Automatic annotation (TrEMBL):
Pfam families: Radical_SAM. InterPro entries: Aldolase_TIM, Organic_radical-activating, PFL1_activating, Radical_activat_CS, rSAM, rSAM_sf. This is Pyruvate formate-lyase-activating enzyme. The lineage of its organism: Bacteria, Bacillati, Actinomycetota, Actinomycetes, Micrococcales. The keyword Iron-sulfur applies.
Length: 342
């Protein structure tokens, strides 16, 4: 067992599976969300060394697997067997963040593997499972346990992100279960495309889903992701039905934050945004309060270099971030449906 960083470096703020990370860094507490305490508010400007975690201050240069033991002494057969049972996962990186990825201070874990191919993906190095490092659920949960006091003090918890979390449902299920057994708040950041892979038991162990709705009309969704929109919409409706008599798939209601990445010339069409906003509002008609927050995430170019490094064609090289006016227009489209939007 050794401890190492992935050669690719890690999480520049991705947009999508791990949507918009960094965009809300330092954002104030908001109504409808459990009060957010920054790590800095708790500890002053610097993160104490004894937390021993890759932190937000380092996220633009990449947080790796520091502090986690890599199970690289397993042969291939054992690895595959353990991945099937969820004892082992393919992990890209982790970090300790605040005011992003859910309420409070979060231990965010990026898993490898994603079935989508978003044009704006800011972590293309998470797309293939084989590029991740093998980490056991037990190892990850030992790290979670270490931060339980921090989570309690900040009303934070663990967030599984990616890549696509539901590409490794057995591993995710184990981590979520273990976290709940410690009384830790759990969040899953997902495109919803593989929502059918999320079992009712997993849903019951999930407090919050960060649902990335990348477009409202199927053609734009296909253009953005190379995949179909319908599974995401179905998954969102299943979340809205959680906790309802008769339609419930989980024993208690799951909270949802909807994330929408605003890319000029790609997702900004007024009708496309209207469709996302209408859909989001419809979830609250199924179960009032399902979607407690909408995050409109302005496109940025911070992942461009990774595409080049990986030898992939990046088609958004000339795309500029949205203007303040455009971002406000889009946020207003959500707000006009009574949605708390940021
Ligand atoms: S390709 Fe996957 S990881 Fe990248 S933004 Fe899309 S959903 Fe997220």
């Amino acid at each position: 067992m050794t401890t190492m960083n992935p050669a690719t470096g890690a999480a520049t703020p991705p947009l999508g599976g791990g949507a918009g990370r960094g965009v809300f860094l330092g954002a104030p507490s908001v109504i409808g969300v459990p009060e957010v305490f920054g790590v800095a508010e708790l500890y002053g400007d610097s993160i104490p060394a004894d937390l021993d975690a890759p932190t937000a201050a380092r996220r633009r240069t990449g947080a790796g697997l520091d502090g986690l033991s890599i199970a690289d002494d397993l042969d291939r057969t054992s690895k595959l067997a353990m991945m099937r049972t969820g004892e082992l996962g393919s992990v890209h990186s982790w970090e300790l963040v605040t005011a992003v990825d859910g309420p409070g201070t979060r231990l965010t874990v990026f898993l490898n593997g994603c079935p989508l191919r978003c044009l704006y993906c800011h972590n293309p190095d998470t797309l293939n499972m084989r590029d991740g490092e093998p980490v056991t659920a037990r190892e990850l949960l030992a790290r979670v346990k270490r931060y339980v006091p921090v989570f309690r003090a900040t009303k934070g918890g663990i967030t599984l992100s990616g890549g696509e979390v539901l590409q490794q449902p057995a591993f995710a299920a184990r981590v979520l279960r273990g976290a709940k057994e410690m009384g830790v708040h759990t969040a899953v950041d997902t495109s919803g495309f593989l929502g059918a892979a999320m079992s009712d038991e997993m849903l019951a162990d999930t407090d919050l889903v960060l649902l990335d709705v990348k477009s409202g009309d199927p053609e734009t969704y296909l253009k953005v992701t190379k995949r179909a929109l319908a599974p995401t919409l179905d998954f969102g409706r299943r979340l809205a039905q959680s906790g309802l008599p008769g339609g419930a798939t989980a024993s208690r209601p799951v909270e949802v934050w909807v994330r929408f990445v605003l890319v000029p010339g790609l997702t900004d069409d007024e009708r496309n945004v209207d469709l996302v906003a209408d859909y989001t509002a419809s979830l609250n008609e199924i179960r009032p309060g399902t979607v407690s927050r909408v995050e409109v995430l302005p496109f940025h170019q911070m992942g461009r270099d990774k595409w080049t490094a990986l030898g992939r064609d990046y088609s958004l090289g000339d795309t500029q971030p949205p203007s303040v006016e455009l971002t406000e227009r889009v946020r207003e489209q959500f707000r006009s449906r009574g949605l708390a939007t940021f």
